[in-house]
Amino acid sequence: MTRDAATCPAVRQQARCLESSTTETHPTIRPKDEVQQKQLCAFGEYVAEILPRYIQQVQVTCFNELEILIHPDGIIPVLTFLRDHTNAQFKSLADLTAVDVPTRQNRFEIVYNLLSLRFNSRIRVKTYADELTPLDSAVSVHQAANWYEREVWDMFGVFFANHPDLRRILTDYGFEGHPFRKDFPLSGFVEVRYDDEVKRVVAEPLELAQEFRKFDLNSPWETFPAYREAPEPLTIEAGDKKGDVK
Amino acid sequence: MAGLLKKSTGLVGLAVDSNPHESPKMSERMERKHLRILYTKLTAVLQNIPKDAAYRKYTEAMINERLNMVKTEPDVQKLENKINDGQIEEVILQAENELNLARKMAQWKPWEPLIEDPPSDQWKWPV
């Protein structure tokens, strides 16, 4: 029994899609939550009013995320306030990371993400540091900061004063360098191999057989079924008048 | 709720704040007494902060409100609903946290103007 390609249900459905793709009614945009935005703005202003000594800027992103940008001396006061104050109660440190922006004077931006279980709300606290100035450790405020600060030290080189145990956490034991910095190359500086003469693993300068190649991110699956056939280019043949295009 | 002793808070590490040897009515008064002591200590610490500091204004307003609620409401369960901040043991813990915070705030003095402005391009995004 032969199955005609044109009558196959999948092909019929695709044909229908092709026909109805001419008019676009509503682009899919995330609906704006005005209430939450107002609440976050109000809370941001409240915190800025209480701690003007350390807070440099307060902003609410379009995705309704409150961010507080502070001076590095204010890490412990601001985090303690957010943890202990009754109207804040951000008892949980969800994340502690750093961002490297080499063009800035203070190239590292340290980000603390806090969660309040009582009020079901999140807040982001950002500070800055350069390669040499140490920051206060947040371990005295949130115990969870311990390994996160070790990771930031290992990957970026930001030193945390008063940390109970600041040592490398992800890199190899004798590794030199801070891998997440923007000036550290993707394939690193050393490669390791087992050397039979000395009977151990040795680290040698990098020698890769191929250069790093970047592929365009073409997906093997079709992304735009409505545009499967390339539109015919408009041609003007010799002898046609201007308004007479096929 | 008078006459019923609470067996546990349901939270790990947070014990029920009562003396099991005393009568239940006495235990209820212990929790409210504990809260009252904490709130009065807090108001005393807040006196060290200048009157125009925002922290003092907001915290004092909140503490006075809660102190009134504690004084007027004898029943612990209704008090918990009024304060609307979880169980009474959690409220006590939070009051202790606020007390520690107030003591530290008196030292840090965060109501003063900004220590140092950031470099002009520090918070610019996209770079």
TrEMBL record, chain A:
Keyword Transferase: no
Stored SUPFAM superfamilies: Nqo5-like
Gene Ontology terms, MF aspect: NADH dehydrogenase (ubiquinone) activity; oxidoreductase activity, acting on NAD(P)H
InterPro entries: NADH_DH_suC (IPR010218), NADH_quin_OxRdtase_su_C/D-like (IPR037232), NADH_UbQ_OxRdtase_30kDa_su (IPR001268), NADH_UbQ_OxRdtase_CS (IPR020396)
Domain NADH:ubiquinone oxidoreductase 30kDa subunit span(s) in chain numbering: 69-189
Pfam families: Complex1_30kDa (PF00329)
Subunit structure: Core subunit of respiratory chain NADH dehydrogenase (Complex I) which is composed of 45 different subunits. Interacts with NDUFAF3. Interacts with RAB5IF. Found in subcomplexes containing subunits NDUFS2, MT-ND1 and NDUFA13.
UniProt family annotation: Belongs to the complex I 30 kDa subunit family.
Protein name, per record: NADH dehydrogenase [ubiquinone] iron-sulfur protein 3, mitochondrial
Gene it is expressed from: NDUFS3
